Amino acid sequence: MCGITGYTGSGKALPFLLQGMKCLEYRGYDSAGITLVGEALTTWKAKGRITELERMIDPALCPEHTGIGHTRWATHGVPSQLNAHPHNNMDDTISIIHNGIIENYMELKRELLGKGYVFASETDSEVVVHLIDDCWKNCGQDMLKALQKAVHRLQGSFALCVVTTYDPTRIYCLKKESPLVLGHSAEGSYCASDPTALLAGTREILAMEDGQIAVLSKNRIDLYDFDGQEVPAVFVHYPYDAESAQKGGYDSFMQKEIHEQPHAIRETLRGRFDADNRLIMEEIDSLGLNWSHLHRVYFIACGTAYHASIYGKTLLQRAAHISCIAETASEFRYEDPIVDEHTLCIFISQSGETADTLAAVRLAKERHAATVALTNVLGSSISRMCDATVYTCAGPEIAVASTKAYTTQLVMLVCLDLKIAEKLKAVFPEEEKLIRSLKSLPETVEKTLELEETMKEYAQLLIHQHDAYFIGRQLDYPTALEGALKLKEISYVHADAYYAGELKHGPIALIEPETVVVAIATQKDVAAKTFSNMQETLARGANVIFITDQDTDAQDFARVIRIPACMEELAPVPAAVLLQELAYFTAEGKGCDIDKPRNLAKSVTVE
Ligand code: F6R
């Protein structure tokens, strides 16, 4: 995720900016840049690490007291020096850094190109600096007014910092749906995307609210709403040290990332539906595939992403009645699969660098299949190899165990499946209702997170157990697999997942008093069947955790947890969140190193 830092005060800006950017390195980034303001702007940008940037700069020649710094994690435009922030206007008098996504940047870009503005990068962010320049010229050269005017043209999410040679002792900050915090001390004023980057300067911190503009100067910070009304600036003492600040006050990155899911899902859906709720997916429109000749769709991935594949294939096959196959990449590459020019292969990979998945892409391409990547990392190998790429916008995942990447993959698979069904002239059952439910999924997940304490209580059952079993049918099956994998990975409790109907064909022999069984029943046609299978384990003394959105007679169970209402096609998202919590609290109770489980790596770049 991109990182922002800024300083104006009596000290030199450069050292503060560099140390702030280094504090933000943990968020992941692919390029970095700084603008210092004096009579002129001085901007440096580098692809790669902050050390690359430092090589370009001679600190002895940098006396400036005002500046902004940025670490970029690419979303629009590949990682490169040109796409790195800051972005400057054409006469190098205004410089901006931006976190977030400008949804209407294409429309704004067309308008600004028409006015003669020249763009140097492929980013959505660059439109902002030219728009501010245009507004500045039309607002009597008053920067605050220009920003108020510009901000009303921007759609999307943004944390923005603006500096200008017209006013070299100020930083202007604007916020909507992307975090931005301000700090103040006797030495000056500070801004950052994350309190971590401020702690070297101050602990007196104000978290900006959406719809606010702040004007930072050496001795004060003034706060306004987007219409120019002044609002009180109230600072609070920030209690955390740098390490817990990076984790946003949570005990681990995994817990933070579990809680980031409403935001990650919102970002992933951003810009995907027009005002009439029609799906926008130009990546697939321009795939150049003869859809009427399509015979089969493969969903290929590893680990958690493979569980997402099973979800994606089940959903599509149901709606489009085309042959859909979910396969692990490590098997696909060796099994001589039926893949030809009538095959669409969808590759799902959070990192976009998993060796087995990349090998599977090569095989599909050799056999002339159409290839689509679904990844979280812009410019990753998989996106360069496939014919088209759709991105999740989960932001970097730091914990080894995948959480927000998984749920955003499910969300993007719903979109992708809707698009493929449309191309195949098929319609999802209750499609309009599904889209409405999808759009309100961030709120559904917010409500799900309120059930955290219950999952913590249920996790106590697992702490002293060696084994656990997860069961579910249809779309609940990938959820069962994912719940079992999360538990294994971070708490080292052995866990297996089965189709609920398979239990009595063998695994039930393992159920004895106090064995934990997690039954997931969110799919109405089969919920009663899973309910019966769960009863069979209860009869053998199992401790059952029953996750459902169905009306059931709860009195028979000690533990039933009801997920917030949503369409059953989407229930695997909140259900997965609950199972992440279950694994998390089990691992916490066992004192495990949650973010770095033994033997595991975040990106598996070897076979
Ligand atoms: C589990 C986990 C892994 C990854 C797998 C594929 O929590 O993170 O199972 O899902 O290694 O990684 P990507 O999605 O990067 O291809």
What report would you give on this structure?
By secondary structure, this protein is an alpha/beta fold. The chain is built from 20 helices and 25 strands. Helix 19 links the parallel strand 23 and strand 24. Helix 16 (441-449) packs parallel to helix 20 (572-589). The mean pLDDT is 93. Bound molecules: fructose -6-phosphate.
Secondary structure elements and their pairing?
Blueprint: E1 3-9, H1 13-23, E2 31-37, E3 41-47, H2 50-56, E4 66-72, E5 87-88, E6 94-102, H3 105-114, H4 126-137, H5 143-151, E7 156-164, E8 171-176, E9 181-185, E10 188-192, E11 204-207, E12 212-216, E13 221-225, E14 230-231, E15 236-237, H6 242-246, H7 253-259, H8 261-269, H9 282-285, E16 296-301, H10 303-320, E17 323-328, H11 329-332, E18 343-349, H12 355-366, E19 370-375, H13 381-385, E20 388-391, H14 404-423, H15 431-439, H16 441-449, H17 452-459, E21 467-472, H18 476-491, E22 494-499, E23 516-521, H19 524-538, E24 543-548, E25 559-562, H20 572-589
The structure holds fructose -6-phosphate.
Fructose -6-phosphate is lined by residues 302-305, 349-351, 354, 357, 401-402, 489, 603-604.
